[in-house]
Each structure stands twice: as C-alpha cells, then as structure tokens.
Amino acid sequence: AGGLQAAGVGQGDTVALMLPTSLAYFAAFFGTLLAGAICVPIYPPSRNVRIEEHVRRHLGILANAGARALIVPGEAVPLARLLRTQSDTLRVVATVEELAGGGNPLRPVRVAAEDPALLQYTSGSTGAPKGVILTHANLLANIRAMSAALAVGTGDVFVSWLPLYHDMGLIGAWLGTLHQG
Q: Is the pLDDT score of 30 beyond 80?
C-alpha cells in the first residue's frame, strides 16, 4: 500500500491488477484497498496469438475505469508499458515486488462502507467489457448472502479452480473463505 502511495496513487484512484492467481495477487489486492484505491481485476494475457484482442479489450477497460496504475507480473511489463503509451490515464506500471521493495510506510486511509472497493468487468466475449462498481458494503453483503445460502461454517473446506480476476474466484472463493475463517 505504501508503494502505491509513493507512486502517486491516492484515495479513490483506480488500480488495475493484471495478475495470475498467486500470492502476489493477494498482496496487490489488499495493498490497493489499504491505499484507499479501487481494484480493477483484469485477466493476464494467455496466448500470444490473441494479443491484439487482449490489448484492445484492456485498453477499453483501462480507459473506462480511468485506471491510474497497472500491477503486472514481471513477464508482462513490456505489454503493460505498451498499454501505458496508449492510455490517457495510466501513469504507473509496476510489479508487486517493485511496489513492496521500497519500504514506503503506509499513510492510513479511511474508507466508508459506501466507497467503491472494486470495479468488476465482464470478459467482453460478446461485446465490449462492461463494468460494475462494487462498494465495500456490496462485497460484504454478497459474501454474507452466499455464506447463508450455502450454510457455510468455519469447518468447511472450499476448493475452486476459478482465477482471482474472475468475480466468483475473487468474491465467492477467496473473500468468502477469508470471511468465514
């Protein structure tokens, strides 16, 4: 979180996370929230043969979200730099390691339940990706409703193959299990 703040990302700014499911994703997600910024999960490139389509969709998402920063794995830095040259809002391209390595202290940020926590976009497989704003209260209400509907308890085990940039992977699998303990 301190690394994002040191890079000029402030409260209410949007930060796109173009990361695969990994420990780095957890750090980037919580670091973004702790900085008071809004997470924008986007899928990382999967195949070079579809790179043009990937760039076109992601430029649309970055523009629509007004993303100020893009966090990527090291191997995606060249692609992220290309995206930055084509974006009017994107100012910071960094890896999780770069943001964590500076030892920058976190300046506490207060957020309210009605503040946006993330912008979740559709894949865009049937048209341009469309986003929806989820507040901190929306996320918690969704997680509580899923937990109640499934009668989930702390002794249950949850297994998922869904990636963290997918809404059900992020909210249902990861944040839901985190909430349940």
A: yes
